[in-house]
Amino acid sequence: MKMRASLLLTYSLILLSACAADESANEEQSLQSPDPTAPTGNAMAPTMATAEAMPTMSAGAMPSAGSLPASTTGPAPMTGTDAQQPSAPDGPQSPGAASASEGATAGMGGTEPAGMAEDPMNGMDPQSPSGPGEETASGMDTAAPDPASTAGKLPRVDSTDGPGPFDGVVKVKDTPPGGWLIYPEDIGRDGIKHPLFIFGPGGGTTPQTYDMRGMHWDRYGSYGFVIYVLPRSTGDGSAMKRGLDWLIEQNDDSSSPLHQHLDTSKVCASGHSMGSVTTFDFMPDDRVTTTIHISGGSFDGQGPSNLSKPTMFLCGPSSGADVAYPQCEGDFRVSEVPTFYTKIQGSDHLTSGRLGWPAITAWMLWHLAGHEEWKAEFLEPGGQFQMGIYDSQLKNW
Question: Which residues is 183 bridged to in the sheet?
Answer without folding.
Answer: 170
